[in-house]
Amino acid sequence: MPSITGEGLALLHGALRKAITSALAAVLLTALVPVSAPATQGANLVPAPDVPAPATATCTNTVGPSIAPPPASSLVIGMTGYRAQFFGQSGYPTLCPGATSTATIAFHNSGSLGWYKSSAPAFLGTWGPEPGQDRPSILGGDGRAGSPATGWPTANRLAQQPADYVGPGQIAWFQFTVQAPTTPGVYKLGIRPVIEGKQWLDDFGVFWYVTVKTDDTAVPQPPRVAERTYLPSLVNGVRQIRVPSLMYHYVDWLPPEPDRFRVDLTVSPTDFEEHLKYLVANGYNTVTTHDIWWTLETGAGLPAKPVNITFDDGTVGQYANAFKLLAKYGLKGTFYVTLNFVGREGYVTLAMVKEMAAAGMDVQSHAIDHVPMTTADRTYQACASRRILSDWTGKDIRHFAYPGGSYDVASFDALAKCGYLSAYNSGGGSLQSSDRMLLLSRMRVRGQQGVPALITALAQ
């Protein structure tokens, strides 16, 4: 066998390296490039379709239709003293969070005295039930007392008459700016004209609604607005009005092996929605505890067939189910929250409480601890819960529900000392009375009985 010289050996090694490199390249290409089916003669290559980008939510500010002035024949002129009559307004706005809108409301001077900007000026003042007489609003203000800076004269005065003088029979066109809060929902602002330093004028019951949305495809529905023609009667100097107040605890599904108390206190989400459907179909209008107190205190009207839907304790189903269903049907409720339950398993969180309050639900106090007011430190339970809940919600908490329905005379004294305006017990039918503000009546809706349980409670 002939020997291989050094030069020949080097040539052999080079050839082997080239062969190995080519083989490895072929293997790698086979592994990395997918094997295609044999191309059909004449077939065209079709590019892969583009994957659409996720749709971006859009939010557009809009304004609804205005309310036209009444017929001239309905205008009153020359009533004694300072008087006012609602004349018309621009449309309610639907806004994105943080957006602003300019509103216009007109009032007719129906009295015998003129409104002088220099000495007896007319203003639009904040009124009840929301936010309450002379209370600041989250919808506008001068940047003080927790109000946003939207150019109002003060935190509780929306606008001043623009003309130097508005005589009897003339119209004042008030303009003010509102700003949308950050949380979606429907917000209400009570408005009443006032001659500053002299008197509030006649026409109250005027409200400004602001709907806040984050997406044009998901707009919160405003509550159904009904005329407040249902007035309390006056019996021996005491105002009385019949308003069914419904009491719920658990709006949820039953847990495994519930005891008889939990069964009786639990209304399923399906049944609760049927309750709301029944109320809407039969012409009921939801009101809050503050509304009831207001009509008993002032004689102002409520909408026909009023009903107050109340919830005790702050169980999580009240947020997850009841709150969401109320919003779905444009209804409102009153949620009595026990503060030391907040954040516990099975109960609402602080964020949930704030969200419900910001969305227009009436959040009120059910004490610090769920203990009988007959044995508790009454002043602590009442005052501390009012202070903390007012801080959490940004609203003035003025209404109470007795834990377990337990109360005594000392409880009344503590509630009055702490600034409460009303309190609910746990029974007594639907007749509400101005001489029993701290013993308003309500009826519990029993669980597992469907719509008949609601009808029974309404009939009390």
Structure in a nutshell:
By secondary structure, the chain is α/β, with parallel strands linked by helices. It contains 9 helices and 25 strands.
Point out poorly predicted stretches. 8-13, 23-45
Largest sheet: 7 strands, mixed
Structural class: alpha/beta
- Give the CATH level 1 class of the largest domain: Alpha Beta
CATH topology of the largest domain: TIM Barrel
Radius of gyration: 33 Å
Average predicted confidence as pLDDT: 87
Per DSSP, the total helix count is: 9
CATH architecture of the largest domain, please?
Alpha-Beta Barrel
Number of strands: 25
Gross morphology is globular
CATH superfamily of the largest domain: Glycoside hydrolase/deacetylase
Tally of domains: 2
Helix content: 10-25%
CA-CA gap between termini: 120 Å
Beta fraction: 15-25%
Summarize the structure in words.
By secondary structure, the chain is α/β, with parallel strands linked by helices. The protein folds into 2 domains: 62-212, Immunoglobulins (Immunoglobulin-like, Sandwich); 233-458, Glycoside hydrolase/deacetylase (TIM Barrel, Alpha-Beta Barrel), CATH 3.20.20. Helix content is 24%, strand content 23%. The protein contains 9 helices and 25 strands. Strands 1, 3, 6, 7, 10, 11 and 12 form a 7-stranded mixed beta sheet that branches. Strands 15, 18, 19, 20, 21 and 25 form a 6-stranded parallel beta sheet that branches. The longest helix has 27 residues, at 6-32. The radius of gyration is 33 Å and the shape is globular.
